[in-house]
Amino acid sequence: MILKAAKIAAFFVYLQDMAISFFQKISRAVVGRSRVDDDTLDAIEDALVESDMGVDTTLKVIDALEERVERDKYMSRDELLDILREEIAGLIPDTVSSIEDKGRKPYIILVVGVNGVGKTTTIGKLANWYRKQGKKVVLGAADTFRAAAVDQIVIWSERAGVDIVKQNMGSDPAAVAYDTVKSAVAKGADVVLIDTAGRLHNRVDLMNELTKIRNSVRKVVPDAPDEVMLVLDGSTGQNAFSQAREFSRATDISSLVVTKLDGTAKGGVVVGVSDQYGIPVRFIGTGEGMDDIKPFDKAGFVESLFSPDNIK
């Protein structure tokens, strides 16, 4: 009984630690220290890794800090935090293009990601966001291997008030993508969002399927899609890194949407994945509601990491 109670207590301590913000982890690492020494750097390194920034990205930050410490010899807590802000911001690629930059109608986005990360929900939120920007949106239900996926995206299309193209379960995803783009062109749509199967059985199958979809879309609009958007669940830690790796190997990922950034100290995964794979973050999801998605603001995001309230 005592052992069981101890395990339960340890579990609650673990949950509390998971909820500690990035800012709190860093503050713990530097509080009470009058100078930046090896122990301080080790504590900061642990805080960054615990925040899901990833080992490789963490080491980049620590190397930069060591260089500054060697040069400046002494830093105050505020100076240290300012340097951390600068280094972390420098690791996140800037978003380089958008619908307005491309200037083509329709702007075609192929949305990829494994089952369970909120991919279809994200598509619904994006459809709603673009519609509110005055864009005419068409969805393509090309995840035809799961009846639930088609049903779900139909519901989201109704909530967002946008058109959708779908076929029966088991239909060829490439054919659905082709019909979607053809319909969007005929309707003069501004944005096309195509859902794809969230399977990751092996890289060859994934690559072949995405290549077929890409080729079918190009029969209607040459050089499409304009964007291949990968949806990652920010709460899954290292799983997000492995998913980014596999999808990057299978196709050219041009942007990220990171979901479930709800203030639970998991913001480091945004920095780590975008740094390691050189992919800009386009949107972040912050909840389950229709409007709980927003364009990624790098400066605001980095500042939020160092805020006691973290991401809201």
Q: How does the SSE layout of this entry go?
A:
Layout: H1 2-18, H2 22-30, H3 38-50, H4 55-72, H5 77-91, H6 99-102, E1 107-112, H7 119-132, E2 137-141, H8 147-160, E3 163-165, H9 173-187, E4 191-195, H10 203-218, E5 227-233, H11 238-250, E6 255-259, H12 268-277, E7 281-285, E8 293-295, H13 298-305
Parallel strand pairs: 1-4, 1-5, 2-3, 2-4, 5-6, 6-7
Antiparallel strand pairs: 7-8
Helix pairs in contact: 2-3, 3-4, 4-5, 4-12, 7-8, 9-10, 10-11, 11-12
Structure description:
- The protein is α/β, with parallel strands linked by helices.
- It has 13 helices and 8 strands.
- The chain has helices at about 1-20, 20-30, 40-50, 55-70, 75-90, 100, 120-130, 145-160, 175-185, 205-220, 240-250, 270-275, 300-305, and strands at about 105-110, 135-140, 165, 190-195, 225-235, 255-260, 280-285, 295.
- It has an 8-stranded mixed β-sheet, with helices on both faces.
- Helix 11 (about 240-250) links the parallel strand 5 (about 225-235) and strand 6 (about 255-260).
- The longest helix has 18 residues, at about 55-70.
- It is elongated and about 65 Å long.
- The protein starts with a helix and ends in a 7-residue tail after the last helix.
- The relative contact order is 0.15.
- The model is unreliable at about 5-20 (pLDDT under 50).
What's the helix-strand series?
A: HHHHHHEHEHEHEHEHEHEEH
Query: Biggest sheet: strands side by side, in what order?
Result: 3-2-4-1-5-6-7-8
Estimate the global geometry from the Cα principal axes.
Answer: elongated
Work out the strand percent: 5-15%
Helical content class: 40-55%
Mean pLDDT: 83
**Biggest sheet record:** 8 strands, mixed
Structural class: alpha/beta
